[in-house]
Specification:
The chain has 310 residues and is α/β, with parallel strands linked by helices. 39% of the residues lie in helices and 18% in strands. It contains 13 helices and 14 strands. The strands form four sheets. Strands 5-2-1-9-10-13-14 form a seven-stranded parallel β-sheet, sandwiched between helices. It has a three-stranded antiparallel β-sheet with strand order 7-6-8.
Length: 310
């Protein structure tokens, strides 16, 4: 099982999918980034994982579809519509179909399974919950929804606090709890997604963290930082603004006793002793996934260390 946000997590998910058989991988995906825009239910992280595994994601952006066109957005701009969130012409089909299925009474998990099948995705993609959870970011501009902060404001405002609206009432989709209770589950991999915006929402769902801790499988996280910098996104900026040291060791400490293992980039090998002193097994390797082979190599590194316990 893998826990993933969007672009960064999807890269490792793709590597795991290549190394494992399609029936050996389930991906629990953050849905606190979801929002309604132009009347459509948008699920950015779910779509990024689905598109990546289907081999149709934009290879440069990491999100959206390859060979996309933008006639809809151009027409919307001419009509003075909201254009701060880009929706590609082909990508619109996914959002429209999802919105229709949800309006027809299908839960998000069933909708995700149907879309995954239509895109020919083998691994099981699971939203963290069928219930709505929304990331709200308190900033020096006031409280913003995640997409307002991340896309409209381009992460410029200074972050003061993050909360997950609806997390207390939300429950994990039943398939997640069944997987975590399965004695044959080999490992739980926390992908190198933003711990504050992508993984914390998953852990915030009522009962999720307890179920992860109770699972017999080891929980292994991959650092999203390399040399104190994030490969993509505002992870380092947000950690600094929230007075969290911008280090791989601080990420491991953030996950705390949930972890059995932690994977560092070789650049951060000096942090190995600090993390190991907490009782978490540590391993170092190249975590920069710039090619399909690099994704596969990182996946193999993780999987090869499950049985010996690093």
């Amino acid at each position: 099982m893998a826990l993933s946000g969007g672009v960064g997590g999807a890269k490792l998910v793709a590597g795991l999918a290549d190394v494992l058989g399609p029936d050996q991988l389930s991906v629990v995906t953050n849905t606190a980034d979801d929002f309604t825009h132009l009347g459509l239910h948008i699920s950015p992280d779910l779509d990024t994982v689905i598109y990546t595994l289907a081999g149709v994601a934009d290879p440069d952006k990491g999100w959206g579809l390859a060979d996309e066109s933008w006639h809809f957005m151009q027409a919307l701009a001419r009509l003075d519509g909201e254009t701060w969130f880009n929706l590609g012409d082909r990508d619109l089909a996914t959002h429209i179909l999802r919105t229709q299925m949800l309006a027809g009474g299908m839960p998000l998990g069933a909708v995700t399974a149907a879309l995954s099948e239509k895109f020919g995705v083998g691994p099981t993609i699971l939203p963290m919950s069928d219930d709505p959870v929304r990331t709200m970011v308190t900033t020096d501009m006031g409280e913003l929804s995640f997409q307002q902060y991340f896309v409209r404001e381009q992460c410029r405002p200074k972050v003061r606090r993050i909360r997950f609206e609806g997390c207390e009432a939300a429950r994990p989709v039943p398939e997640i709890l069944a997987l975590l209770a399965d004695p044959d589950l080999a490992a739980i991999v926390i992908c190198p997604s933003n711990p504050l915006l992508s993984i914390d929402p998953i852990l915030s769902v009522a009962g999720m963290r307890g179920a992860l801790k109770a699972a017999a499988a080891p929980v292994i996280a991959v650092s999203p930082l390399i040399g104190g910098k994030a490969v993509k996104g505002p992870t380092a900026k947000m950690m600094q603004e929230l007075d969290i040291p911008v280090t791989a060791a601080a990420v491991a400490a953030h996950y705390g006793d949930l972890l059995d293992g932690f994977v560092l980039d070789t650049v951060d090998a000096a942090s190995e002793g600090e993390i190991a002193a907490t009782g978490t097994a540590v391993s170092t390797t190249n975590t920069l996934m710039t090619s399909r082979e690099a994704k596969q190599d990182l996946a193999r590194h993780i999987l090869e260390r499950i049985n010996p316990g690093f």
